[in-house]
Write the structure tokens for this entry.
Amino acid sequence: MRSLVQCRGRLIRQKVILSNRLNELSEACLPALLETVQDVDQSWFSSFLEQAPTPYQAQKMTRSELQKLLKEHRIRRFDADSLLPILRQQLFPGIAPMAPPEAIETAVLAPQLQLPRSQIKDLERQMDEMIERWCQALLKTNSDSTSDE
């Protein structure tokens, strides 16, 4: 159990480092969206960044693509209609759309954040199962000792 707890701690630290960097990059590339979302450490936001890592790609997202993404991740805090105007804002008016270096790094980081998330969930499930087995064994031991008396 100790090794599982230590491993979970390392994964959480890794996830925090990736989340902090993704937050910095999102602030540079999609500041209005980040202000609305407020938390980049959500699986739906990573999925969004995988689909649209650059401001230009975010501007090109359709209402149905955004709705599908929000529905897949069960997001009800906001809807596609409220996010579309934010995505349509032009960051640098008069400048041709291109991928800033931050957007390229975002495209690389977003999928990397999914791995520690799923690994943490798996570890927590294993820990829960282990605790459940211990509790069952303890209850069985207690019931065996009371029946012996």
Q: What stands out?
A: The first helix runs from residue 2 to 29. The mean pLDDT is 82.
